[in-house]
Amino acid sequence: MFSSRKISLAACALLVAAGSLARAAEPGSFGYGKPATPAQIAGWDIDVRGEDGAGLPAGKGTVDRGAEVYAEQCAACHGTFGEGEGRFPKLVGGVGSLRDERPEPTVGSYWPFAPTLWDYINRAMPMPTPHTLSSDDVYALTAYILHLNDLVPPEFVADRNSLPKVKMRNRDSFIWTDPRPDTTAKPCMNACVNAADVRISSTAEGRNLTPRTTGPLDTMQPK
Amino acid sequence: MRPKQPRSNVILPDAGGSPARIGRRSLLGFGAALTGSLALGGRPAIADPSQESPPADAPWSQSMGAGVVDRPYGRPADSEASVIRRNVPWLTASTESSVSFSPLQDLHGIITPNGLFFERHHAGRPDIDPAQHKLMIHGLIERPLLLTMKDILRFPSTSRIHFIECPANGGMNWRAAQLNSLQFSHGMVSCAEWTGVKLSTLLEETGIKKEAKWAMVEGADGAHMNRSIPLDKCLDDCLVVYAQNGEALRPEQGYPLRLVVPGWEGNVNIKWLRRIKLGEKPWHTREETSKYTDLMPDGTSRGFTWLMDAKSVVTFPCPEKPLDGPGLYEIRGLAWAGTGKVKRVDVSVDGGINWQTARLHEPVLSKALTKFTLPWRWDGSPALVASRVIDEAGYVQPTIAELRKRRGSNSIYHNNSIQTWQVKPDGSVFNVQLA
Predict the structure, then answer these.
(1) Is the residue at A122 inside a domain?
(2) Which residues pair with B376 in a beta bridge?
(3) Is residue A72 one of the residues assigned to a domain?
(4) How far is B398 from chain A (nearest CA, A)?
(5) How many Å lie between the alpha carbon of B39 and the closest alpha carbon of chain A?
(6) Which of A53, A122, B32, B173 is most buried, taking the most CB atoms under 10 A from its CB?
(7) Which residues lie across from B386 on neighbouring strands?
(8) Chain A: residue nearest B404 by CA?
(9) What is the largest CA-CA distance in chain B?
(10) In sequence order, which ranges of chain A are alpha helices (DSSP H)?
(11) ∠ at Cα B122 (B119, B125), nearest 5°?
(12) Contact between B284 and A111 using a beta-carbon 8 Å cutoff
């Protein structure tokens, strides 16, 4: 009796294992949800691949039209000529600055792929009402911003064929495989540094950068 | 047994004064043993917290508290009102595309309370109707699927504890020690128990075409935030989660659905997850080209630096929690590693000349915050307190000087260097960097 129970337990375990294995291997075995229809997918499928522009839709836009849309939709934050208002991002400039003390990464100096600009404007801009511009207007804005950065001539027309061909200045400066770990510290335990060499090189004391009134509670306190 | 007499008439702390005052004065003559008893005409002494003769009852010990469901959800004690997330107003152009920091100086464990989990939004926090929220899975799969929240909850569930850290955590310290605060220097890391479905389960349900190598994951926020993730990582340990520390996700953390990518930088853990698409190549989205890439001194940039390298920080003492005179203290801190478990943490109080191995507190979990402590007798002299973590792979947390040697100081992200706190003789604590 004892052994037969053991056997049946083993058989149960086998069945359970077989069941879960079969389930893992077979698509649709849970059967939850509904098939996404081609029409539904078309509505949701907004992504564009930066490298080759795969996913860019039909439509087109000129630099001139882009200037109009930009003045209306973008200039308040990004500045009339892409110089950026306040701390909102600059869209223009910084070319040749990436090795400087204060680099300025912008569309012109940093972005590696032009189709990514179309994708980002389309999905995330304008910030208060994202993903409300027409494809044509997104093409026009892309053309205008590329032109502000001297990447395309004034007569440039942006569309699914022209954008992937725009040569971005920083395209070849990215390394897409992570070289870390790039430090090789050893866990020394005793007399690791000469006491004379222990020197404070910078301190936050007296810098006055630490926020004092940053949360709802602090706002109520005297400054 | 006779029911007890209602006592509310004798315990009001401010019941006109005179009987209580007389009572207390008399009691002082009789000695401490009688304090608080009903000896004087059934009228207890009113407690005065400034009197230290025990037992001394505070007003809350001599009154009835609030009943159940007085606070149906609950909230921290009123006195903890300063334990909140905070932002740095000058750091970002607007609060909608910004970050808030978790108050690590007031947290005592490895789990971050849900209301204190750091925030990073790229287009503000959407408030989503879960009845309308859907997850679409399509691209290089066999069966394109549209799942409701109800559908997702039916799949086998998994719970795991993992940290999430923004790669810009510590970014303000790349150039120099700038903010004198643990909250602002390290508060973009938090840790929770996440519950949801393994992404591998969902992808097995849809079937994966053999050409698929990458996944594009996208949020339903205004940013339609999206990132590319290698399929191998998706199938390894990613979770599609709907719960955080046992309750539904907070809206700030992606309600009703988010991705958790254990050990990888925060922004790939897409919140408000609405779409997963498999493809052959990465997408090079704005958030993995223009942002979240690391600029090196030679002008090149590193992309796809997803891993959060091992890091640790002393959470006590810290600028917000100075020392209160010489004596015995417990140095406390947190350590974590995107590669797996924390293997060891060493602590120095002399600026890295000598180190002692700290005690790790259970549970020590893979890709989760780990607590460490070390007893320390402080003699009141100046000290430089720091911690150094070693992960399972043997990787040792570097100094800021070592990191700068490799990466300069313009890479914004992935500053996992050793944090040094300067303790002055008056016990005050400052954020410093050593040469």
Answers:
(1) yes
(2) B329
(3) yes
(4) 6
(5) 45
(6) A122
(7) B348, B420
(8) A183
(9) 90
(10) 2-25, 38-44, 63-73, 75-78, 114-124, 135-148, 216-219
(11) 60
(12) no
Half-sphere exposure of B28 (CA within 13 A, CB side): 10
Are A49 and B350 a contacting pair at CB < 8 A? no
Q: Is B21 helix (H, G, I), strand (E, B) or coil?
A: helix
Chain-centroid distance of CA A214 in Å reads: 27
The domain segmentation of chain B, as residue ranges, is: 8-62, 83-296, 311-432
Residue A43 lies in a domain: no
Asked whether this chain's domains B83-296 and B311-432 adopt the same fold, the reply is: no
* 3-state secondary structure (DSSP) of residue B194: strand
Q: In this prediction, does ipTM exceed 0.95?
A: no
Q: Number of structural domains, chain A?
A: 1
Instruction: CATH number of the domain at A66, please.
Output: 1.10.760.10
HSE-up (13 A, CA, CB side) for residue A171: 14
Closest by Cα among A221, A40, A104 to B274: A40
- Which residues are bridge partners to B145 per DSSP? A35, B137
Q: Do B395 and A181 touch (CB under 8 A)?
A: yes
Q: Give bridge partners of residue B331 from the DSSP assignment.
A: B374
Answer whether residue A218 is part of any domain.
no
Whether the Cβ atoms of residue B292 and residue B228 lie closer than 8 Å to each other: no
- Please, what's the largest Cα pairwise distance for chain A? 90
Identify how many contiguous H helices and E strands chain A contains and give both numbers: 7, 5
| CATH of segment(s) B311-432 | 2.60.40.650
Q: Do B138 and A188 touch (CB under 8 A)?
A: no
Note whether A119 contacts B286, CB cutoff 8 Å.
yes
Please report, in tens digits, the pLDDT of each residue of chain B (435 residues total): 444 443 333 333 343 333 333 333 333 333 333 333 333 444 455 555 556 666 788 899 999 999 999 999 999 999 999 999 999 988 999 999 999 999 999 999 999 999 999 999 999 999 999 999 999 999 999 999 999 999 999 999 999 999 999 999 999 999 999 999 999 999 999 999 999 999 999 999 999 999 999 999 999 999 999 999 999 999 999 999 999 999 999 999 999 999 999 999 999 999 999 999 999 999 999 999 999 999 999 999 999 999 999 999 999 999 999 999 999 999 999 999 999 999 999 999 999 999 999 999 999 999 999 999 999 999 999 999 999 999 999 999 999 999 999 999 999 999 999 999 999 999 999 999 999
Side chain identity, residue A134: S
In CATH, what number does B83-296 get?
3.90.420.10
Contact B291, B268 (CB under 8 A): no
